[in-house]
Amino acid sequence: MSGNDGNGVPAKGADDEGGLSHEGADDDAFADALLEEELRQAAAVLDPVPDALRQLALEAYALHDLDAEIAELAFDSLVDALPVRGVTDPPRMLTFRAGEVTVDVEVTEDGLIGQVLPPRSARIEVLGGPQTARSVTVDPLGRFASDTPPAGPFALRLRTGAEVIVTEWLRA
User: pLDDT tens digit string along 32-63?
Assistant: First the structure.
């Protein structure tokens, strides 16, 4: 009974052995491709992707590092710290870990201050969405500072020779 509709009639596009014929499969694929193209054209006319969103998507993809190791957020003072009485606007403290490397960052309204442990010379890029990455130099003791506070979501990309480590994206 396979290959028919139960009444002895072969199913549409079925060959003599009960499988789909190549001709029927090609017709279905062509019809699907035609429908998909019509839907794309309709979406482009009725609900186009805003140019700003398209540019943001392209820039976000350009920031993607396939070889980068992801540093996990190990501590965030907004979540993990106990409140201190009398302090109304404490700086945000973040700790990221990737293997043996730890990056401690303090986010203030004046910028970023941090340290890479174990200490090493490196370069850190502060990524900020559609903005270009701001480069910050890390001294031999692992310390770094940026006098520009992140505006909106940000991430850090640490480059030490061949090693690249990227933090997850956070809001300042």
Answer: 999 999 998 998 889 888 888 887 777 766 65
Contacts for 103 with CB less than 8 Å, ≥ 6 apart:
71, 95, 96, 97, 114, 115, 116, 117, 156, 158, 165, 167
10 Å CB burial of residue 20 (0-12, 13-18, 19+) is middle
**Which of 141, 114, 110, 109 minimizes the C-alpha distance to 125?**
114
- Rounded Cα distance, 137 and 17, in Å: 70
Average pLDDT for the chain: 80
Q: What is the pTM of this model?
A: 0.58
Instruction: Yes or no: say if 14 and 3 are a contact pair by the CB < 8 Å rule.
Output: yes
Distance CA 123, CA 1 (A): 69
Determine the Cα–Cα distance for residues 126 and 62; give it in Å rounded to an integer: 14
Angstrom distance (rounded) from CA 40 to CA 60: 23
